[in-house]
Amino acid sequence: MKILVIQQKMIGDVLTSSILFEALRKRYPTAELHYLIHKHTLPVVEHNVNIDKFILFDPEKDEKVPGLFSFLKQVRAENYTVVIDVYSKINSAVITAFSGAERRISYKKWYTKHFYTHTFRLKKSAETGAGLAIENRMLLLQGLSSKFPKEIKPKIYLTEAEKNSAQVLLQQAGIEPGQPLIMCGILGSSPAKTYPLPYMARVLDHLVEKTEARLLLNYIPKQKKEAEDLLKLCQPKTRKNIFFEVFGKSLREFMAITSHCDALVGNEGGAVNMAKAMNVPTFSIFSPQIKKENWSIYEDGKQNVSVHLNDFNPEALNRLKKKEIAKKSYQFYELLTPNLIFAPLDKFLKNTIKQDPNKQII
Fold this sequence. Notes:
This protein is α/β, with parallel strands linked by helices. Helices cover about 40% and strands about 15% of the residues.
């Protein structure tokens, strides 16, 4: 049996959908398992022991007609028995249909249903603590067998060399083991998914005030200006505790550094999913237009906690569509003031950060 799983676009989605390979490997140990993903997302699933081959989609080349035709021929030449299309959009439906696979599985949508042999309606409520993002992915495996589990936790496969290199990097920066260390997700994947910087600065101030933790900022070089703007908004004491020049220069390095942190606090997104996959506790701030129930993966109120405007002021978003909220995201973010989230944040810090006996979190 030869199986292809398709999950394009975002890093968090690619990591989350990788759970299918663990389930497939256990059920079909001799099957050949391939993963079709965008090439920039490869690092998050690199070294996954359950994946035999990656089929890398390059948007700059493969979305143009000549490149797309060549890509489709490449997929068809693999002679897949099964294709599981998790992405479930028009372009992935075309790839699935062109594969020629005998069994083609995806979600039920009126505009793509004829491309598949088996389709499933998305679940509206979760049955486990894993959350809908996990359960809806596992649901697709019912197109092969009813004996798959309902949930599996995503995993990241770091090498010992990567973890050791990150530890050396931290020590060279003056961060010693045993000191509380928090990775801060200061920027979302877009402005509409980014907690306002003045509010984020107050969150960082609060982290240092309550824990004396060393802080690392998750940003990439092209976001340095925004990170510097945030730094200027922080209190002097906070700035002293921020190791601004210590950041992941690649996705693998970011994950290796995060694996040494006591927690990740910040905007909900791919970084949060990566931290969870490495069993690093997370406190995430959801953007107003995202449904928290869809991506609150493995939240237990202790090790993994999140906040959303709906938790405090559900009337503000009542009956508004996602696009309407996204257009006014900053306006709705302003309603989610830091004072609202400090109470659940303090509870999270009590559960996850080693306490200085002379400075307890109140």
